[in-house]
Design a protein that fits this description.
Elements lengths: L7 H8 L4 H14 L8 E4 L5 H6 L6 E6 L2 H9 L3 E6 L12 E7 L9 H10 E12 L3 H4 L1 H8 L3 H15 L7 H11 L1 E9 L2 H13 L9 H5 L10 H15 L1 H5 L10 E8 L1
Parallel strand pairs: 1-2, 1-4, 2-3, 4-5
Antiparallel strand pairs: 5-7, 6-7
The protein binds S-adenosylmethionine.
């Protein structure tokens, strides 16, 4: 089982030192996921390069299966030893028999898929009865917790705020932000009963994440200095290991309180954990 004791902030800053805000978001995500149960066999839907599974399930037996349509990412996933099998496939045509998996895990994937209904139907088909469906997605309030959105709204500039959020959607290739109620309906139509949803990434963390994307050269209208420093092209100059160690040392201390911050009871956050069970 994933461990609640693990320091996901340090682990992910070490992996994503070139994009620290990504490390922060994903560290909070893993802290939230680590409280869930993942019965075997597990299918990682949209596994990418396997890095997230590698950190979340560190020290465990490899996950049974990971799949993703993106060949280059998948190739790295295959090298990570984190999966028994990796396969190139799309979520709406999963190459597995009915009732195969006890858990489907999908981290930061479903928001990138234009037509979600067939993917959820496929998930229900390949899950065993009673099997767990565990997904993380940006929440229905993601856009309005962005620092750039809030700044514009604070001066009454709704069109500017919406245009800003639309640019973020486009950069991140996000197609939708369902509410918990909409998740209940979408999953029910596929044959999965919603067990719980939980918000994470409180407003303070979401705002810092958004500002950090500009500071570290991740978003469009951002300062490119750090991106340039962290560029793979400059690896040969030999300073990047030092830079990486500094990022881990400094930010794992400075961002600790953000990493540990929970969404207040009854409040909302920019991320949403969705947990379902095959009916
Ligand atoms: C933000 S990445 C997340 C990867 C990995 N789950 C992680 O947490 O690092 C989104 C992934 O969704 C995958 N994806 C996009 N469309 C998909 C689809 N129709 N079916 C399955 N995966 C898809 C992409 O190829 C990409 O690897």
């Amino acid at each position: 089982m994933p461990s609640l004791q693990r320091d996901y902030l340090k682990l992910l800053l070490a992996r994503y030192w070139f994009a620290p805000p990504v490390a922060l978001w994903r560290a909070v995500e893993l802290r939230v996921l680590a409280a869930e149960e993942f019965p075997r066999p597990i299918l990682d839907l949209g596994c990418g390069d396997g890095l997230i599974a590698d950190v979340l399930f560190a020290g465990e037996e490899p996950l049974e299966v990971g799949f993703d349509p993106w060949w280059e990412q998948l190739r790295q996933g295959a090298q990570s030893d984190m999966y028994r099998h990796v396969q190139q496939a799309l979520g709406d045509a999963m190459p597995y028999p009915d009732d195969t998996f006890a858990t489907i895990f999908s981290n930061s994937v479903l928001e990138h898929i234009p037509d979600l209904a067939p993917v959820l139907r496929e998930a229900a088909r390949v899950l065993r009865p009673g099997g767990h469906f565990i997904a993380t997605v940006p929440s229905d309030v993601f856009r309005r917790l962005l620092a750039g959105y809030r700044e514009r709204m604070s001066v009454g500039d709704l069109p500017g705020a919406e245009a800003y959020a639309t640019r973020v959607d486009r950069r991140l290739e996000h197609y939708r932000y369902p509410t918990p109620r909409q998740w209940t309906e979408m999953l029910a139509q596929a044959g999965i009963r919603l067990v719980t949803t939980r918000y994470y990434i409180p407003a303070t963390v979401a705002a810092l994440w958004d500002e950090g994307n500009a500071t570290y050269g991740i978003s469009e209208d951002s300062k490119p200095f750090y991106r340039w420093l962290a560029s793979p092209r400059l690896k040969k100059l030999g300073y990047q290991n030092w830079l990486r160690r500094q990022v881990v040392r400094v930010l794992s201390r400075e961002w600790r309180h953000l990493y540990e911050m929970n969404v207040p009871e009854g409040g909302v956050g920019a991320g949403l954990l969705v947990v379902g069970e095959k009916a």
